[in-house]
Amino acid sequence: MTAKIVVFGASGYTGRLVVSSLLARGVSPVLAGRSPGSLQALAEPHGLTYRTADVTNPATVRALVGPGDVLVSTVGPFNTFGYAAAAAAADAGAHYVDSTGEVDFVQRVQEEFSAKAAGNGATMVPAFGYDYVPGILAGALAAQAAGTPGGYLRIGYFALGSLRRGISGGTRATLAQALSRPTTLYRSGSLRTRRMGSTTYEFRVQDRGRRAFLAMGTEVLFLPESYPGLSAVEVYNGWFPVLSRAAGPLTLAAGALERLPGGRRALAKAASLGGAPGGGPDERERSRSGSYAVANLADSRGYTVVEVHVQGPNVYTLTGELLAEAAVALRDGHAAATGVQGPVGAFGLEGLTALSARAGLRVM
User: Fold this and answer.
1) Where is the Saccharopine dehydrogenase NADP binding domain (predicted)?
2) Alpha carbon 231 to chain centroid, angstroms
3) pTM
4) Hey, is 60 helix, strand or coil?
5) Which of 31, 134, 247, 252 lies at a C-alpha separation of 20 to 30 Å from 193?
6) CA-to-CA distance for 94 and 67, rounded, in angstroms?
7) In which residue ranges of the chain is pLDDT below 70?
8) What is the C-alpha separation between 145 and 135, in angstroms, rounded?
9) Buried b / exposed e across 158-179, counting CB within 10 Å, b at 16+?
10) E strands along 9-151, which residues?
């Protein structure tokens, strides 16, 4: 019996993109979520099967998959809603991939589920979308090209074109939560925390300098595992040049606001501005922007040794394509290791490069 691919959160914004990408590949996924009406409306035109499941009733999520199946989770924010799906996959021996951008969620998945997943023969690959495959691919290629121990790796994320009206509700919610939290970086064999936005760095993007602020990224978790010679790994976000200049004061203010009565509610309300919380840019809006990431590997004197650039479609389009490609690869037995893995650990650098190319991500 062929293993099935289940898209959990299928009727949400990212879930719909994943379903569309799978259908374009000739794959008929099982749709899952908590709203039977929305699932039925999405499933019927394509003759798809759907199942209801709710994170508040973990047994319903666990019932979605069996050994060897693939669970694609798009139900976020993941720190709030994501654990039921990850636990279900680990318990069932099902492969797992998700769209989270929350590094602390990924750390918890590593700690709680890696041994169980490995024991059950499953591969779990969290954060396999625009967050953070482009940076990991670019960083891995830079580390491999350098070929020598050591190196200070900085990874920057940028948008080509305008994202002014192109941010989804899920992204806004994640960003609002992140403003008041410390970010993680890697230094000489250990993880350390610093305030998000506390420093900036200028990258070369299409032959001009663009500044980005210190941000979160799973590169700090996974790249040192694959390339232990790296002495430092940092991740930066340069989507909005104005925000890069204001990020330091903004994160200070967000931290202070969160400590006040009602502060968390105020941040959540700010995240909802600009559109419906569950919505996101349509195909026309997505066509107006592209994704770009840079990996800059410098030596101990600060001189660039290797620089790798990757470019792809709109960040949401790319996420849907990457999740679909990963789900098919896991279903077809192309994982390189079991347990909770980063993109390189899960597929190998050659496999990840090929998978990313099929999703539209090009190495420049």
Assistant:
1) 5-125
2) 24
3) 0.90
4) helix
5) 134
6) 5
7) 1, 163-180, 241-278
8) 15
9) bbbeebeebbbbbbbbbbbbbb
10) 30-33, 50-52, 70-73, 95-98, 123-125
Q: What is the pLDDT of residues 38-89, one digit of tens each?
A: 999 999 999 999 999 999 999 999 999 999 999 999 998 899 999 999 999 9
Secondary structure of residue 336 in the 3-state scheme: coil
- Per DSSP, 278 falls in state T
Neighbours of 73 (CB within 10 A): 31
CB 360 within 8 A of CB 137: no
Helix (H) or strand (E) holding 190: strand 190-195
- Mutual angle of helices 241-258 and 169-179, in 10-degree steps: 60
CB 135 within 8 A of CB 295: yes
Matching residue, tokens 């023969």: 121
183's tokens: 């970010």
pLDDT tens per residue across span 264-274: 454 445 444 44
362-363 and 50-52: which strand pairing? unpaired
**Residue 238: count of CB within 10 angstroms of its CB:** 24
Neighbour tally for 190: CB within 10 Å: 8
The residues, any chain, with a CB within 8 Å of residue 146's CB and separated by 6 or more, are 297, 305, 306
Peptide bond into 29 cis (omega under 30): no
69-278-135-126 Cα dihedral, nearest 10 degrees: -30
- The DSSP bridge partners found for residue 155 are 235, 295
- Check: CB of residue 92 under 8 Å from CB of residue 65: yes
Distance of CA 170 to the CA centre of its chain: 12
The answer to whether 76 and 99 are in contact (CB under 8 A) is: yes
Helix (H, G, I), strand (E, B) or coil at 316: helix
CA distance 332 to 52: 25
Write down how long the chain is: 364
Between CA 21 and CA 317 the distance in angstroms is 9
Residue (of 363, 312, 320) closest to 159 by Cα position: 312
Cross-strand bridge partners of residue 200: 213
pLDDT of residue 275: 43
Q: Return the structure tokens found at 153.
A: 């790796």
178 and 196 in contact (C-beta within 8 Å)?
A: yes
